[in-house]
Amino acid sequence: MVTYKRNMDDVFKALADANRRKLLDALAIEDGQTLQQLQLALPDITRFGVMKHLKLLEAANLVSTRKIGRFKYHYLNPVPIAEISNRWIDKFTKHTATGMNRLKNQLETVTSKDKK
């Protein structure tokens, strides 16, 4: 049986919400944004709502912060997403590629027999 790190569950939970994905997209475009800047990515959500989303992203280790003076800057941490990609996406992509190669070979075999 496969055991999962608690952090991976937190990452999936964080990525499950479209608003949090928008915040990550905004940080991917321009890293080191303040809360005020990130609010522009979610114009329909209150400041408090954006803060709650950022707190959850921080708990999942997807966002790190740095306070300089009065401002708190938010930075994207892509490592947890890369870990998910390595653990889940790459593994299943290999199976798909293998299946596609088998299908291609079978079709080529059938096609070459038809030509004879």
UniProtKB/TrEMBL annotation:
It comes from the Bacteria. InterPro entries: ArsR-like_HTH (IPR011991), HTH_ArsR_DNA-bd_dom (IPR001845), WH-like_DNA-bd_sf (IPR036388), WH_DNA-bd_sf (IPR036390). SUPFAM superfamilies: Winged helix' DNA-binding domain (SSF46785). SMART domains: HTH_ARSR (SM00418). Residues 1-96 form the HTH arsR-type domain. One of its GO terms (molecular function) is DNA-binding transcription factor activity. Pfam families: HTH_20. Signal peptide: none annotated. PANTHER family: TRANSCRIPTIONAL REGULATORY PROTEIN (PTHR38600:SF1). This is Transcriptional regulator.
